[in-house]
């Protein structure tokens, strides 16, 4: 196996590491298992160009992306569109897609698990022309991220603290908006505070992570009109892992979802894998089962 890695030196964990030394450790780990390995270390602003260049290389190879969820999401889009297998190296704050793939979060352990891993087909989803491997969200999450982005942080823990501060500020004024939903052909109209659509339904753990990345099914999560008190209760049930018992949350499995916003305000945002994007008046979300090839630990392939 030939692996070409692109490491985002501005990713959460990488910011405080000796990246040249880490790249040598990565090369030694893969070569120990009979693979060829090369890597490049780039700034966050150059990550897209580097990923595209690697994906377009001639010959069979694996594109490894090292960074946070934004880097991994961008790499997955490129790998999917070029048909190149993707290896996910978790170096961000949450590492949600890596968790879904059961990749260890400690970097040396992640390298070892990938070097002994196998290629598997998993799902990727799209919201109009934007692909995602974790989640498309509207409502409360984009509001919180917009607030978080106004705060300064320089580390993973700093980002987590900024997220908590942003949540506290956003909680006092939960968003409410009208939406027309068409879920697998069934239409409803609602006023809600948040909608999240996951690339595979979430599992039973506390974090919003699917147990399987290849079910071929979306998970649709709708929070009704929330008051600040109801939002606080929802946050508590999320933290305790009991959110499925919260009457303000609906969970619906689906293959395809259409969203229409009759009163979309100027500048409205959505999030794709945690990154803010402009929200369009009409959004069609679909899952593309088994269309993304990823390198996964051998234990996952055996299941």
From TrEMBL:
A Gene Ontology molecular function term of the record: methylglyoxal synthase activity
Family annotation (Pfam families): DAGK_cat, YegS_C
SUPFAM superfamilies tied to this protein: NAD kinase/diacylglycerol kinase-like
PROSITE patterns, per database record: DAGK
Keywords, comma-separated and alphabetical: Kinase, Transferase
Cellular-component GO terms for this entry: cytosol
InterPro entries: ATP-NAD_kinase_N, Diacylglycerol_kinase_cat_dom, Methylgl_synth, NAD/diacylglycerol_kinase_sf, YegS/DAGK_C
GO biological process: methylglyoxal biosynthetic process
Membrane-crossing segments per the record: none
Segments forming domain DAGKc: 44-131
Protein name as catalogued: Diacylglycerol kinase
Organism of this sequence: Phyllobacterium brassicacearum
Organism lineage string: Bacteria, Pseudomonadati, Pseudomonadota, Alphaproteobacteria, Hyphomicrobiales
């Amino acid at each position: 196996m030939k692996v070409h890695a692109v490491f985002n030196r501005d990713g959460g964990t990488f910011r405080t590491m000796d990246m040249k030394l880490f790249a040598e450790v990565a090369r030694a780990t893969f070569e120990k298992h009979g693979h060829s390995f090369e890597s490049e270390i780039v700034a966050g602003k150059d990550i897209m160009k580097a990923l595209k260049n690697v994906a377009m290389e001639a010959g069979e190879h694996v594109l490894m992306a090292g960074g946070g969820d934004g880097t991994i999401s961008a790499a997955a889009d490129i790998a999917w569109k070029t048909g190149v297998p993707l290896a996910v190296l978790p170096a961000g704050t949450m590492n949600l897609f890596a968790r879904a793939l059961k990749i260890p979060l400690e970097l040396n352990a992640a390298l070892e698990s990938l070097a002994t891993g196998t290629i598997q087909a998993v799902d990727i989803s799209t919201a109009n022309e934007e692909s995602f491997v974790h989640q498309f969200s509207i409502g409360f999450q984009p509001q919180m991220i917009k607030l978080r982005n106004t705060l300064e942080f320089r580390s993973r823990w700093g980002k987590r603290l900024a997220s908590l501060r942003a949540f506290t500020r956003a909680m006092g004024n939960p968003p409410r908006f009208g939406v027309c939903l068409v879920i697998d052909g069934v239409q409803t109209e609602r006023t809600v505070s948040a909608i999240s659509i996951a690339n595979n339904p979430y599992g039973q753990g506390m974090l919003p992570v699917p147990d399987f990345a290849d079910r071929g099914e979306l998970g649709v999560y709708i929070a009704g009109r929330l008051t600040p008190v109801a939002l606080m209760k929802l946050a508590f049930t999320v933290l305790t892992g009991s959110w499925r018992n919260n009457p303000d949350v609906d969970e619906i499995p689906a293959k395809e979802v259409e969203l229409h916003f009759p009163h979309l305000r100027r500048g409205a945002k959505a999030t794709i894998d945690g990154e803010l994007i402009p929200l369009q008046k009409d959004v069609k979300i679909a899952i593309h089962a088994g269309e993304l090839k990823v390198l996964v630990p051998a234990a996952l392939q055996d299941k």
